[in-house]
Amino acid sequence: MRFPSAYGLEAVAAAMAFRETGDPFPGFAERRPDLRIGLCSSLSAGYLHDLIETVRHRPDAPSMAFVEGRPDAVVAGVRRGELDLALAPERRDWRGLEHEVLWRDPLMLAVPERHILAREPEIMPSALQGERILVAVGAHERDVSLDLIERLNPAWTACAAPIEVERETLLGLVGLEFGVALVTGACTGDVHPGVVCRPLAPPVRALDFHAVWRPRSHDPALSRFLNAARTLRLAREAEASNDDGR
Question: How far apart, in whole angstroms, are the C-alpha atoms of residue 204 and residue 196?
């Protein structure tokens, strides 16, 4: 029996440990994975979680390794050929690269369960005025966190509370009532005591996540991955359309 993800798990640890060195996969030159993927999203729930699970269980599943990083960092890794694919939010300076939207992730507010906003089914952006918005400034969090705040109100970035932690610890601090935090829907699969997540009401829109890869790439593993991603996207769109029609 073939276990296509076994090497990928080893490579994740190596990549995360050495992601600041410029070589995301040190010591693995002889065992290069089929796909090296840069992530800017949680895998705890939602489209990306389901996509990776689907690809892993296909008969022709590629071996996969992952690096988590800032959007500009993982896209730069694609440009340099260190990564085969980046999955990044919003379009930036991607000139000369292929890209397409794969999924949309709703923006959520993580709040302490005893907070008054935890009672609301959805939260108006104006309700965040005066709240202490925690921002993780660990190795790869800062850019995404500040981008989310700027989507609501650029003036609030001056009131953001930067903390030298990663996403997991940040949500733990929300549960301890140090403040609130903006997250995407993919983070809602994480279980944190004392934390509830509520969707943000319009006019806030969902965050587009793109696949980004080098042009004229003929890698069969990449093609199969993108085809699986498109199939899942179309299935989700069909489900949403059916729900809207009821």
Answer: 19
